[in-house]
HAMP domain-containing protein (Hankyongella ginsenosidimutans), 226 residues
Amino acid sequence: MQMPDYQADMELFKSEYEDMRSNAEIALERAYSKDTADSARKVITDIKSLNPEILSKNPEQLAMLATDADVLAEYASADGYMLKTAIDEAAKQDRLVIIVLGATCIMLSVLAAIWICLALLMPLRRVMRDMLALSEGTAIEAFACASRADEIGDMARALQRFDATTRQARELTEQRAAAEHQAHLAEQAAAAECARVRAEAERQHLEEMSRVAEQQKKRSRPCFIF
């Protein structure tokens, strides 16, 4: 048995009526502005207060409800545009924040590199210059970075102790060489004195022998008595 046309139309109207009510409730739940919320409440109130069967026979009320629904649709469309604009603006803000954070990270990296160069590389280069000067035999009065309290300062102080030990060893070597030179000079002087004494003794011995020989010669001469 087929349903009469007016009953089918009524069922279709009730379905559209319920869809309108559901859409109004969704619009109220997702309302982005006060106008949308007020319009959605008005449509929901009208729908709850009116009977679909009576409403279907009252064109004026139906037209008013349709007008309210159209106004709600316009407000909801405006809400959608405003929401999209807000989302786009938030995305722009997020991109700006990301750009600022990226630039900040790059700046911090550059500052960290500069700090590393100033705090580590330059002191290391000064310590290396001191090491090169020591290897070339150049005297260093004050070692760079020796007052630092880190590993670079430890290196500088170790280099300072090495230089002090090297200087002490050099001074001991020079003192030993000077003592050996003095001993050699004293030995040469003693040898020269011994040679002089020996020569003097030989000279005196020769003179004594010559004197004795002369005396013997005088004694051996014949004496003539007239």
